[in-house]
Structures are given as C-alpha cells and as structure tokens.
Design goal:
Radius of gyration: 21 Å
Bound molecules: protoporphyrin IX containing FE
Helix content: over 70%
Largest sheet: none
Shape: globular
Strand content: under 5%
Number of strands: 0
Distance between the termini: 76 Å
Amino acid sequence: MSTAITEASDQAENTRASFIRSRLGSLLAIAPLGVWTFIHLWNNLAAWRFREDHGDAWQSAVTDHAHPVAHFVTAIIVLLPLALHTAWGVGRLLTMRPNNIQYGFYGNLKYLLQRLSALGVVLFLGAHIWLAMLKPWFLEGHAEHFSSLASQMRNHPPTLVVYLLGTLGVSYHLANGVGTWVMGWGLVSSKRALRKFEIVSLTLFVVLLGMSWGVIYALYMAGAQS
Ligand code: HEM
C-alpha cells in the first residue's frame, strides 16, 4: 500500500517537474531570447552608417559595453536561456512525429518548418557565437571588428550564404514561434483570433528577415571598402 502511495507521489512529482521544464523552455524563448534577438538585429542596423563612420556606430552598438562586467552579464542573460531553450527544443525534436505526407495541411507544414528551422538555428548559432563572439574574445583578445566581418561577408561566399540562410531560419523560427507561444499559453484560442494572429506572425517574419538581410547587405557593401 505504502509502495503504491510512494509511486503515485513520485509520478506526480515527475509530472510537475516536466510541466515546469516545459513552461520554462517556452517562456525563455520569448523573453529574453526573442526580445534580445530583435534588439540585436536592430543594433546591427547601425552597419548602414559605414559610409560616414567606417563602422564606428556598429562597433559601439553591437560590441562595446560600458563595463566588462556588463559585457559578461549580457552574455549570461542571453547564453543561459539559449542553452536551456535548446535543451528543451532538442527534447521536442526527439519526440516529433511529422505526418505531412498523410495530412498536407498548412498547420502540419508549420509544425515541420518550426522543427527544421530549429535544426538550422542550432547550427547557425553554434557557428555565429563561436566565430563572431568567442573566437575574437578568447583567441584574439578583442571583440569582433566591423572591418573583418564586412570583409568576410564580401569576400568569403560561404560566410554570406550561412548568414543569409541562418537568419532566414531564425526569422521563421521566432515569428512562427510567437504564434505557437500565444496559443500554448492560452492568450489566443478561438479559430478566428488564431487566423488573425497568423497575419501578426507573417508580418513579424517579414520584419525580422528584412532587418537581417538589410544588415547583411550593408556589411557586404562595406566589405568592398575594407
Ligand atoms: C535565437 C534563438 C531562438 C529563439 C528566439 C527561439 C524562439 C522560439 C519560440 C518563440 C518558440 C515557441 C515556443 C512555444 O511555442 O512555446 C520556439 C519553439 C521551439 N524551439 Fe526555439 N528559439 C531559438 C533557438 C532554438 C534552438 C537553438 C533550438 C534547437 C533545438 C530550438 C528548438 C525549438 C523547438 C523544437 C521548438 C518547438 C517546440 C514545440 O512547439 O513543441 N530553438 N523557439
């Protein structure tokens, strides 16, 4: 009898822990990750001022921090939630059951694209965080230089292609994720409201992609001068 009670209570504990993990993985995806992604792209738009300042505005918006501690804290605020969301996401990927061949609905396609984009995002962010942040910091002793990034974008086609595709994946993953997030948290539930929210998601996708590719274009143009 007491064994049965202990088992039931262990099971309830596991269910509660898995519910909290799932909510946390979902919540962190929006804040800070989604919010930070938007701000990061916005800051990168300073690359457009390269003709007047040769990248100084980009350097101070993207890589400069008032204090090294602020730098460190920002990295933790972004990288820790990213690691937790990625662990949660990998768990979801391992249990995914796409059924797009049997059911060719738009919703099923979005389910698959959300997961395919997650795979692309994990690869892109791995390369991006290493090449643009950790390698310059730890191996070269300074933050990424505008001129070096611009020159890579211009003269190294794989870098250009990886940034174009990687930011396409991030834009889709975040924009569609906002849609699944409001549904998952019960903020939007009726069929009509969900259809309307689809327009919000699509608009966000276009805005994020426009910002991303706008930055890449500015870097590519700046690369011709460096
Ligand atoms: C910039 C980085 C990222 C952002 C801003 C982001 C954002 C989001 C958002 C907003 C959602 C929707 C959450 C929900 O419906 O509750 C989501 C879902 C998801 N994310 Fe990410 N994500 C990022 C990186 C990643 C990475 C690296 C992975 C790697 C595995 C990943 C895997 C997933 C998966 C599998 C889902 C779908 C979960 C489900 O619907 O069951 N994400 N993401």
